[in-house]
């Protein structure tokens, strides 16, 4: 046996597979044709939790939102971020007969085709894939940026072509975004997609899309889908698009163009700092929702993408007693 | 309603020092996943261990201020009753529980079919 290759066995079925050096258990299972429950692939949803019966794993994201102190005591681990350090025996996770709905994740080879600056420190990365990408608008990919560095980015364009667009911000202390921004056209990498379940459902309810910062990428993809279907999904579409400053609203024009010919669509930009010449909403997205979204809120179907702090505060607002928004009408992904 | 209070088969699952007040724990009873909650005040309740939404273990969730939240999709239930908080139109199957001394038992009602409620997201 090669150094670094470990065997994972799932009890009580006894199904086992090998995991290469640095591979996550979830990824290795999939490559071995074994589907385990998952959704976000990133440690937010907790769907891939399992009990570690024997062996050791390294968690690539110890601060994962889905992990609690209780999980540590109970030896519950998230398979999407766990890399074996020895042979491992697991229990308490279901073996699926097929991929979860709309989550037939696959590996793609990619090359960076184009990098377009949208604002200072914000860029659109266009990648050329080895074959057409299969996903639902609103879903995301996990990019392998090299040296074991992985990051999740949502597709901003429609599926079915060999091109995928990602929108990213460079953070001064963000090793992932720093690495991504250091890659120039021609660089090859691999990625996995799709992940996430915040994709558009068939509905007759009025739709509300909420985007914060680069969370505009999946919202843009869903708006493209909505527009390409002739705006027939949902009774109406209201898009709240929040960012720090007006210049950070990098896709505002694109959004307005996409929805411009639909009288039932409305785009509401929101910034934290307006300044001279800004006549739109100022404050947090939650302020704009309270000020501009007509009651009753339990009529709407909500989709949102953005920084975890925005997602959490919108969720809190929607779940407040009296508003009565059912959590089944709220779709979001929340990864940092 | 049948006139006989159905017979209950009791299974010992844990002792009180396994489950402190305010905590929850999952156990397996005859192949079924059962969630036990020790409510503030001392009462112990038992519910289906899997979320009615999808096959997610509720014991992976969060128990706070009398509300049980499933981590995966934030479905919430009242810890004391198993009734849905959000969404409302959903509730957890509730098992019979008895405590004798330190020993906690979970009971299956004879003749009962599925001890697992399922709800769809619509």
Notes on the structure:
The complex is a heterodimer of chains A (336) and B (122). Chain A is α/β, with parallel strands linked by helices and 336 residues long. Helix content of chain A is 18%, strand content 33%. Chain A has helices at residues 25-31, 69-73, 175-182, 216-228, 252-259, 285-292, 308-319; strands at 6-10, 15-19, 49-54, 57-59, 76-78, 82-84, 88-91, 106-119, 122-129, 140-146, 149-154, 163-169, 188-195, 207-212, 237-243, 265-271, 281-282, 301-305, 330-333. Chain B has a single domain, classed as 3-layer Sandwich (Rieske Iron-sulfur Protein), CATH 2.102.10.10. Helix content of chain B is 0%, strand content 43%. A 6-stranded antiparallel β-sheet of chain B has the order 1-10-9-4-3-2, with no helix packed on it. Chain B has a 4-stranded antiparallel β-sheet with strand order 5-6-7-8, with no helix packed on it. Chain B is globular and about 40 Å long. Chain B starts with 7 loop residues before the first strand and ends in a 13-residue tail after the last strand. The chains are: A alpha/beta (336), B mainly beta (122). The interface between A and B is medium-sized, with 18 and 18 residues. Chain B: One of its GO terms (molecular function) is monooxygenase activity.
